[in-house]
Specification:
The complex is a heterotrimer of chains A (about 325), B (about 625) and C (about 200). With about 325 residues, chain A is α+β, with helices and mostly antiparallel strands. Chain A has 9 helices and 12 strands. With about 625 residues, chain B is mainly alpha-helical. Chain B has one domain: Cytochrome C Oxidase, Chain A (Up-down Bundle), CATH 1.20.210.10. Chain B is built from 19 helices and 3 strands. The termini of chain C are far apart. Chain C has one domain (about 20-200): Cytochrome c oxidase, subunit III, four-helix bundle (Four Helix Bundle (Hemerythrin (Met), subunit A), Up-down Bundle). Chain C has 5 helices and 1 strand. The chains are: A alpha+beta (about 325), B mainly alpha (about 625), C mainly alpha (about 200). At the A-B interface, helix 2 and helix 3 of A face helix 4, helix 10, helix 11, helix 12 and helix 13 of B. Strand 1 (about 555-560) of chain B pairs parallel with strand 1 (about 1-10) of chain C, so a sheet runs across the interface.
Chain lengths: ~325, ~625, ~200
């Protein structure tokens, strides 16, 4: 049953192009993660109660203004002040009851959110200006690998995210899966996510982090365990050496130009750590933290002029000849 | 003042009275011209100036808001680049909080509180003049920096490390931090003046339970300023030191802490909300009386609610840090305390409703704004209850939901009462009435425009739109609502424009106002509109909470104050019994000179720590000149 | 509105002393502001201390001598300070003049010792957060002393001029004495924080 559902979800995901997704793929109201689902219930309940309260206040206001609108003089009526006092006290008591209920509900909901156990899959998420560095850590050190901006998770399993801010404060938020959690330099945080439905869920940095705060998205891709395992195995591999001449030229350019100073491509001499690990960049759906779909064209456009596309980001403009640009983008696109 | 023509001793009284008022006018006057403007210590002139300046900053901040709405009306718009946009939203927030909202409330109090408590001038009038100049300098610093493309770009709460030495390049964050120093200095000065004015300069007989609610609100607010502002001054001093001389308060690599900033900032920042809201609540409680034509219901409850809010305000700051990763148990405590603030807010709301229920409403513009306030502020309060819940907050924190929430609280909860207050006290400020027709039009445009602009932001936030993004990608489903919001903001803008037009038109051509056009019960309406430099020819003697409703023909007054020197009455704290005749300082240029010296020192210290040493010398000189006795009658004892 | 005179204020004094003076209340309000500032600075110290694994961070404990000396001097200064307050209340010009000179000296001497206190912290403000916070605590309090010293000096000069024999001045002297008590009082928790907390 769940399998069929996840299959359906997966195929649905495949037909929907990455850009122009029909649904709210980054929304606290369109929820699939178990945390986000229970949060949505809480949100709807609280909003409903509050709406009723607002309407009652409005009725009281309208009635108050309406009833004496034409009165010429007030008729002193014995006991009115006392009745009004009782009414105000009653309203205050109702307020106390409502907020007490909300407080208890919040407390219970908070406790339900913080479940994580040791055997959960652990991903270290690092917030940087303006991209997400990811490190999959497992019990076996050889299973460790790095990637960026795209978190794959198996459906139906708890995934523990260890959140670290490496430069300024960022905030990890994939609203369809869970509430947000800050990445604070010097103070590691944790967040557990779990989703039962395969799919692509978009998230975005939620704490103002400088110039390109607006372009710091990430994707969470939930897939069945076997697909996830396949993906993880592939990611652990070093980069496949280029097969055609153009890509080989691209690799040479990549290594001789400043690219390699900031980026790592495992299996080559490129071992920079300032920028995202590019070992399998061609397999990722987006580049530049969710700005474009990964294609040869978008890679070339990005490399040609990163400062116009994403002003202020830390990738400098590296002057390349048109041939070099073509070769490098061909090489990067080939890094599946 | 109207004099009964039938009084038997009209003639003698007339002569005595003319002699009295002309002597007072001579003693208390502000000389005409430029010099007079620079040296005046009249709380009314300074208050008006303060209010005017604050509204200029409101208009400037509104222009910034319009620019943001223009940029966000379409995805990936290239109208404003990220660097400028970040400056714009930082400026908008900092400007609205530090240069408009807090100062305007204090400014209204500077004008009104001495009148409402029945004294001749505010306590420490020279400090009052100094405060205005410092405020003006702080505002000028911020806006000049912005004009030079050096405006702060780190958000109005300037979180480290983004604002710290490593990531906040240039002098932008320093300008933000120093602007804080300017505005805090001016706010603290006014807080001290108000506390002392309210404690010691109330008219004889104005016991604690006869103080108008607005004055109570300003008393509580002043204490909030006194207790909260030092936190942000310490925070921003630490930031400047980290940036300038290499201290490590916020550097986790050297034992500092990033969240220390947030704790300090919000220990100030949350009370700041009440510093803005409590005066507004006080305005509502005071304005509602003449328009409901009955005393505000539950005076004791209203005052206790103000005090309770003031105390609770210091126990909520962590709710701005629910997703920062603090211990969950602590977070739950702050959920409870944040929810609890709904109780005093509720008490006030129910008292106002009860007042209207039992009253006979007069539908003038101020009452319309009170209605608008109730409609919108209740929404802001309820969304406040929502974000007080930790789990709820994890989804909406730092999204447009929060943007919507605090605009409902600050515009609905503070600006609407303020606009009502401008209509209400305008005759006292200028001697002319504001136009009712224009008032109504601006009210309806503002309330419709406001709700259409800000309500959809709740939905945008829940749909995942974070705050402070300069643009968004076209594949996100936010475009439609953003267009709607941007279009609605035009309506809101027109409403505000009408309001400003009304103000300027009425100030010149408005109907001439009588002393008490609204039949209001508080003392500021016992004198002329606008009041003379000495406020009251004779200080009123107060016998109830609504002195002008007790006897609509006669005002009990006290006699015996000297007219050859600036003199006012000091009364006892609780029972307001006369204690002494105290001198009130004359006009002086020294406050301006001290403010100039302070401004030089503060701006210089952005660039060099030695400025603190050398820059202090002229300040000390100016202060000595300020306090040195001049042998005037004011110095007699 | 017609005025009805119900109260004659002509007999009231031309200046209130003590709680009848607005300056007294203003001084109190400024003390509240500064007290809050000091309390928060100490809170920052305790906060950073609670986060650190070792405290002081990479530094020896501060030397006790100069700080303790300042504490002693400030403590002794309370005696003439309380006396001057009483003399001012009695409006005894001669004694107040002498007292102001003494109090000026009592303002200068701790500042001289303070010069040796900063190096005795044995850490620089830019070495780590511990250094930063002890320097700011000491710096704040030094500013506090300097401010009151300037006030004292100006007032001392005033007392020797024709403006001296005036109830208003005596009131100022009392307010200044009250403020000095406050300067001493704020020092004690700071002293305890900087020198003794690290020795517990």
């Amino acid at each position: 049953m769940i399998r069929a559902a996840s299959k359906a979800g997966l195929s649905a995901m495949l037909v929907v192009p990455l850009t122009g997704c029909g649904g709210n793929w980054q929304s606290a109201l369109d929820v699939y993660g178990s945390a986000a689902i229970s949060l949505k219930h809480l949100i709807i309940l609280i909003v409903a109660v509050c709406s009723v309260v607002w309407m009652l206040v409005m009725i009281a206001l309208i009635a108050a203004l309406w009833r004496n609108r034409d009165a010429r003089s007030s008729s002193p009526e014995p006991g009115r002040e006392r009745r009004m006092t009782m009414a105000v006290i009653g309203a205050v008591v109702a307020t106390v009851l409502i907020i007490s209920t909300f407080t208890v509900m919040s407390f219970i909901a908070t406790r339900a959110l913080t479940v994580a156990s040791q055997d959960d899959l652990t991903v270290r998420v690092r917030g940087l200006q303006w991209w997400w560095g990811l490190e999959y850590v497992g019990p076996d050190p050889s299973h460790r690998f790095e990637t960026a901006n795209e978190i794959h998770i198996p459906v139906g399993r708890n995934v523990r995210l260890q959140l670290e801010g490496l430069d300024v404060i960022h905030s990890f938020w994939v609203p369809s899966l869970a509430g947000k959690q800050d990445l604070v330099p010097g103070r590691p945080n944790e967040l557990t996510i779990r989703v039962e439905r395969a799919g692509v869920y978009r998230g975005q940095c939620a704490e103002f982090c400088g110039m390109q705060h607006a372009h710091m998205a990430l994707l969470v891709i939930a897939e069945p365990q076997e697909d996830f395992d396949k993906w993880a195995t592939a990611q652990r591999q070093v980069a496949t050496p280029p097969t055609d001449e153009e890509a080989a030229a691209g690799l040479r350019t990549f290594l001789t130009k400043p690219c390699a100073a900031c980026h790592t491509v495992r299996g080559t001499a490129a071992a920079g750590t300032t920028g995202p690990d590019l070992t399998h960049v061609g397999s990722r759906r987006t580049i530049a933290s969710g700005m474009f779909e990964t294609t040869r064209g978008s890679l070339a456009a990005w490399i040609a002029d990163p400062q116009t596309i994403k002003p202020g980001n830390n990738m400098p403009l590296v002057p390349l000849t048109p041939d070099e640009l073509r070769a490098v983008s061909a090489y990067l696109a080939s890094l599946k | 003042m109207n004099r009964p023509a039938t009084a038997p001793d009209t003639h003698d009284t007339d002569i005595a009275r003319t002699r009295l008022t002309s002597a007072l006018a001579k003693t208390w006057k502000t000389p005409p011209g430029f010099w007079g403007a620079l040296t005046t210590v009249d709380h009314k002139i300074i208050g008006r100036r303060y209010i005017f300046t604050a509204f200029v900053f409101l208009a400037l901040g509104g222009v910034l808001a319009a620019l943001m709405r223009l940029q966000l009306a379409q995805p990936e718009a290239r109208l404003i680049g990220p660097d400028r946009y970040n400056q714009i939203f930082t400026m908008h927030g900092a400007n609205m909080m530090f240069l408009f909202a807090v100062p305007v409330m204090e400014a209204v109090a500077v004008y009104l509180v001495p009148l409402m408590v029945g004294t001749r001038n505010i306590a420490f009038p020279r400090l009052n003049a100094f405060s205005y100049w410092i405020y003006l300098a702080g505002g000028a610093l911020l806006w000049t920096a912005f004009a030079l493309d050096m405006g702060p770009d780190v958000g109005w709460f300037a979180y480290v490390p983004l604002s710290g030495p490593q990531y906040g390049a240039g002098k932008r964050a320093d300008i933000w931090a120093q602007m804080i120093t300017f505005t805090e200095l001016s706010a603290l000065a006014i807080a001290v003046e108000l506390v002392v004015t309210i404690f010691k300069q109330r008219a004889p007989g104005m016991t604690l339970d006869r103080i108008p609610v607005f004055v109570w609100a300003m008393l509580v607010t002043s204490f909030l300023v006194i207790m909260a502002m030092p936190a942000v001054m310490i925070a921003s001093t630490g930031l400047i030191l980290d940036r300038l001389v290499g201290t490590h308060f916020y550097n986790p690599a050297e034992g500092g802490d990033v969240l220390l900033w947030q704790h300090l900032f919000w220990f100030f920042g949350h009370p700041e909300v009440y510093i803005i809201f409590l005066p507004a609540a006080g305005m509502v409680s005071t304005m509602i009386e003449p328009f409901a034509r009955r005393p505000a219901f539950g005076y004791l409850g209203l005052v206790m609610a103000l005090i309770a809010t003031g105390i609770l305000a210091f126990g909520l700051w962590v709710h701005h840090m629910f997703v920062a990763g603090l211990p969950r148990l602590g977070d739950s405590f702050f959920t409870a305390s944040s929810m609890a603030i709904a109780v005093p807010a509720g008490i006030q709301m129910f008292c106002w409703l009860a007042t209207l229920w039992d009253g006979r409403p007069v539908f003038k513009t101020p009452l319309l704004f009170i209605m608008g306030f109730i409609v919108t502020f209740v929404i802001g309060g309820l969304t406040g209850v929502m974000v007080a819940s930790v789990p709820f907050d994890t989804q909406v924190h730092d999204t447009y939901f929060v943007v919507a929430h605090f605009h409902y609280v600050l515009i609905g909860g503070a600006v609407f009462p303020l606009l009502g207050a401008v209509h209400y006290w305008f005759p006292k400020l200028t001697g002319r009435m504001m136009s009712e027709t224009l008032g109504r039009w601006s009210f309806w445009l503002i309330i419709v425009g406001f709700n259409a602009t800000f309500f959809p932001m709740h939905i945008l936030g829940l749909e995942g739109m974070p705050r402070r993004i300069y643009t968004y990608q076209p594949d996100l489903p936010w475009h439609g609502l953003n267009v709607f919001v941007s279009l609605s903001s035009i309506v809101l803008t027109i409403g505000f424009l009408l309001f400003f037009i009304n103000v300027f038109r009425s100030a010149r051509f408005g109907e001439v106002a009588p002393d008490n056009p609204w039949d209001a019960p508080t003392l500021e309406w016992a004198t002329t509109s606008p009041p003379p430099s000495y406020n009251f020819p004779r200080i009123p003697v107060v016998g109830s909470l609504h002195p002008l409703w007790d006897d609509r023909d006669t005002l009990p007054v006290a006699d015996g104050l000297r007219t050859d020197r600036r003199e006012l009455i000091v009364t006892t704290l609780a029972s307001a019994g006369p204690q002494a005749r105290e001198a009130s300082p004359r006009n002086s240029i020294w406050p301006l000179l001290a403010a100039v010296a302070t401004t030089i020192m503060l701006i210089w210290s952005i660039f060099s720590p030695w400025a603190v040493v050398w820059g202090s010398i002229p300040i000390a000189v100016a202060l000595i000149g300020w306090f040195w006795p001049k042998g005037t009658p004011e110095d007699e004892s | 509105m017609r005025e009805k005179i119900v109260l004659d204020l002509g007999r009231l004094p031309l200046h209130g002393m003590g709680t009848g003076s607005v300056t007294w209340w203003g001084t109190l309000a400024f003390m509240l502001i500064e007290g809050t500032g000091f309390a928060l600075s100490i809170a920052v110290y305790l906060y950073l201390m609670s986060l650190a694994t070792v405290w002081p961070i990479n530094a020896p404990r501060p030397d006790l001598l100069p700080g303790t000396l300042v504490t002693l001097i400030l403590g002794i200064s309370l005696v003439p300070n309380l006396l001057i307050s009483r003399w001012a209340e009695q409006q005894d010009l001669r004694k107040v003049q002498i007292g102001m000179v003494i109090m000026s000296i009592f303002g200068i001497v701790p500042l001289i010792v303070r010069i040796f206190e900063f190096p005795a912290l044995r850490v620089s403000w830019d070495s780590n957060a511990y250094g930063s916070v002890v320097w700011i605590l000491l710096g704040l309090h030094t500013t506090h002393i300097i401010t009151d010293l300037v006030d004292t000096l100006v007032l001392a000069v005033l007392m020797f001029t024709r403006h001296g024999p005036n109830r208003r001045r005596f009131g100022d002297v009392q307010d200044n004495a009250m403020y000095w008590n406050f300067v001493v009082a704020t020092w004690l928790p700071i002293y305890g924080c900087i020198y003794w907390l690290v020795r517990l």
